[in-house]
Structures are given as structure tokens and as C-alpha cells.
Amino acid sequence: MAGNSYSVINALTDIVASPGKALDEIKLHTSWLWWPLLITILLACGVFAYFYNWVDFPWLVEETIRQMPAESRAEGAEAVRQFMQPSTSMWMSIAAIVIVTFVVYLLQATYLHLVNKIASGSDIGFGQWFSLSAWTGFVSVFGTLAAFIVMFLADSNQLSAEGLQVLSFNSLLLHAAPGEPWFRWASSLSLVSLWTIFLTSIGYARWTKSSMVKSTVIAVLPWAAIFGIWALTI
Q1: Which of these, 99, 95, 92, lies nearest to 64 by C-alpha position?
Q2: Exposed/middle/buried for 190, CB within 10 Å: 0-12, 13-18, 19+?
Q3: Phi, psi dihedral angles at 190 (to 5 degrees)
Q4: Domains in the chain: boundaries
Q5: pLDDT for 65-96, tens place per residue?
Q6: pTM of structure
Q7: CB-based contacts of 178: which residues, under 8 Å, 6+ apart?
């Protein structure tokens, strides 16, 4: 266990470099959750604020129309052109980031809280599980930083938002084009997803004294259910 001088700054470093040490302290300091939560949200909002001021927006509008189903493209094109504006798109993206982040963390915390009550019975409160969700989700900042690098190094500003996701399974493995059946599915999974699952497994194991096998199954299960059902519908 880390000493009394251990701080939230140490935890922000150790969640990457020495996650076990960080997670032990995080369990004791629920109020620290605001640091990873705010950093994650602010960086994600920043990347989209920059993106919508950087991208060739007329090209992005036409690219969005091109990805629409052929049968509805003709009647929907004009509505898209009227609705899509840089400021509107930016603020909608920022609002979605904030709302989705909180909803995902709340759902994950609820899931872990209930599973712990049923499977482990450890005396761990809901707030601590929400804190674990925020801390394990903190590694998404690496995907955000990668998106910034993509824009800084790009030869052209004709790039979709999905093109920023260079750590996704689609960018790394599948290479499905926008509009293809597996594009959204593979773009929604990334190396960061695996990292988050790994950290959740470690956190659950250390906090509840469960085995790593049991903890990994618990961490993987919601991801497997969501993406498995999604895959079956494609």
C-alpha cells in the first residue's frame, strides 16, 4: 500500500505505470474521481471543438450525405445541409460527450455494485464503483491525444470524425469503409477498450479479493454482451 504522501497526481501516473498501486489508493479516496473524470471530458470536448474548426466542413457535410442509405439520400440531403453547421455540430458533440460519459460510468458502477453484492459481498459503496469507472476510463485520454496528433500531422483537413479513431479495431484491423455493416461496430472497439477492461479486472480483484479469472469474467461480460448482440444484428 502506498504511503500517506501518495496524492491524486501519483494516481494519475500510476493508473498507467503501476495500476495496482493506484487502484489500492483510489479505493480509499473516492473524491479523487473528479480529476480523471474532468480531464477525460475536457480533453474529449477539446478535440471535437478543435476538429469542427479545423475540418473542411463543406466536405464533411457532403461526406455525411454520401454515407446515408441510397434510398433516403435524395430526400435527406437538403435537410442535412441545412442542419449541419460547425457550431451546431460542435456543441452537439460536446453535449453528447458529457452525457454519454456520465451515463456509461453510472451504468458500469451500477453493474459492478450489484455484481459485488451478489458475488462477493464486499463492503464497497456505489460511489467507490463510480470512482473505479472514472479511473479505468481515464486511459481513453490516449485515444484523444492520438486524435489530436492525427489532425496535426494530416496532409488534408478532409477527414471524418471516425478517421480520428486510429486506435480502433476498424483502423487497426478491419478497415471497413463508412457505410459498410461492420464499420460502426469495429470503430466503437479499440485498444483503449481492452485497456479499460484490464484495469477494471485488476480493480475488482484487488478491491473484493476475488480471483483474476472471476474478476476478468465480470469485467468482460457487459462488453461481450453489448458487442455480441450488436454483431448478431449486423
Answers
A1: 92
A2: buried
A3: -150, 175
A4: 8-233
A5: 888 777 777 778 888 888 899 999 999 999 99
A6: 0.92
A7: 63, 67, 160, 162
